Amino acid sequence: MGDAHPLLAALSGARHGALHRRVLLTVSAMFFFDLADLNTFAFAAPAIRRAHLFTVDDIAFVTALGFAGMAAGAILGGRFADQVGRRRVMAGSVVLFSAASVVNALVTGVGAMAAARFATGFGLGAMTSVAITYLSEVTPAARRGRAQATALGTGLIGIPVVAFTARGLTADDPGGWRALFVIGALGVLLVPLLMRLPESPRWLLARGRSAEAVQVTRAFVPDWEPSAEALATPPAPADRPRFSELFAAGQRRNTVALMVLWLFGLVGFYGFQSWVPTLLADHGQDFAKSMSMSAVTTIGAVPGAFLAWPFIDRYPRKHLAVVLGLVVAVLGIGYGLSSSVVAVVVFGTLVAALSQTFIAVLYSYTPEVFPTRLRTAGAGLGNGVGRIGNVIAPLVVAAIYTAPGLGYVAVFVFIAGCWLVATATVFFFGVDTRGRSLETLHDAAAAPAASAAPVSQRIGE
């Protein structure tokens, strides 16, 4: 379709107005509760271990089930959002993870906790995949990267909130971990605000609902006067999007590359994030000190996402991702080799910061390489495969840590290796998407002549 359609051109070239800001504020608040809820178990786990409720293997199992839920939610939620719309799936996912958070606070057994974390993860995975797609579709092309970085950075405030809350609740009360899960449950308060947001006009147009698409576009771009072409009603698609289209000739390379990128990027990211509190406590640091050190390092995550703001719409996303991935891998090794409190905090803070800069780039890049009819399915598949890797990663980390002759440092060598694989993938298969309309990116790859085009065009979308 390209930007030849005036509605799409208006969306891509719009000024950042009041409705854009309201969307960004709401999505940012969603990410606050999403990321807070995602990290509650990591910070509750040391207290649960101290109370002799779970072993290290139990913690690995519950963590793995949480990521399994995220994988299922990302893939199924993404597919569903391409069929019924972005807004409804976002609202449903927020309700689900909020309700499941309450259950997390009430259970004690390993099986019950694992089931509750699976349900929580399902809602979180669906929300993330659909939210980054929705934000990409309604934000002007020149600001897509900054919008994603802003939403992520604002949401990341939830991690230190959980970390310091955990420090206060669990330092003297072994049962204080239960109250942590209430933070994620508060996300349900956002549902009324979310339901007041408009549906994605790109999705409406792709579904043949052009009158609604025009109405929503005028809300985003008040000074836009639709032409007769924009007001014309195109035929609705003959069939629903098929998952197999992600692996068709014009899209297969992008899909596979993103699956690998998400897989190793998230294993590296969450292998560090979810295990550090427990590993520090088991590696000789006393409980209170390990919780304090973990809490301090999480502060770096918030400025890390905002660090992308000046660069993400200025330089190719792939170049930023390559540099960031290499630096994080080196810093992760430095963390594993450090023994002093100062070094652990410094390396940990830098890893937390720059890995979030990488995630901001990844969130921006992922929806840009899929056509509208497949966008949340593609974003959900990439995200979901990453979460499947995270199902395996906690088990691998536990095995490495407890294996004779390996242990603490070997865990961080493994994590660094994952970052290097992600970096190599984006180096060889990435493409510059900044500032270009979503439809132009898709048309460049879908054109019949794509096989004869330069590589940078062939893998654009």
Concise overview:
The chain is 73% helix and 0% strand. The chain has helices at 6-13, 18-50, 56-84, 86-106, 110-138, 144-156, 158-170, 177-180, 182-185, 191-195, 201-206, 210-220, 228-231, 252-273, 276-282, 287-298, 301-307, 317-337, 341-365, 375-402, 408-429, 438-446, 455-458.
Explain this structure to me?
With about 450 residues, the protein is mostly helical. It has a single domain, classed as MFS general substrate transporter like domains (Growth Hormone, Chain: A), CATH 1.20.1250. About 75% of the residues lie in helices and about 0% in strands. It has 23 helices and no strands. Helix 2 (about 20-50) packs antiparallel against helix 5 and helix 5 packs antiparallel against helix 20 (about 375-400). The radius of gyration is 22 Å and the shape is globular. Residues about 445-460 have low confidence and may be disordered.
List the domain count as a whole number. Answer: 1
Percentage beta strand? under 5%
Say what the CATH topology is: Growth Hormone, Chain: A
Radius of gyration: 22 Å
Principal-axes geometry comes out as globular
Secondary structure elements and pairings:
Layout: H1 6-13, H2 18-50, H3 56-84, H4 86-106, H5 110-138, H6 144-156, H7 158-170, H8 177-180, H9 182-185, H10 191-195, H11 201-206, H12 210-220, H13 228-231, H14 252-273, H15 276-282, H16 287-298, H17 301-307, H18 317-337, H19 341-365, H20 375-402, H21 408-429, H22 438-446, H23 455-458
Helix pairs in contact: 2-5, 2-6, 2-7, 2-15, 3-4, 3-5, 3-20, 4-5, 5-20, 6-17, 6-19, 7-16, 14-19, 14-20, 14-21, 15-16, 16-19, 17-19, 18-19, 18-21
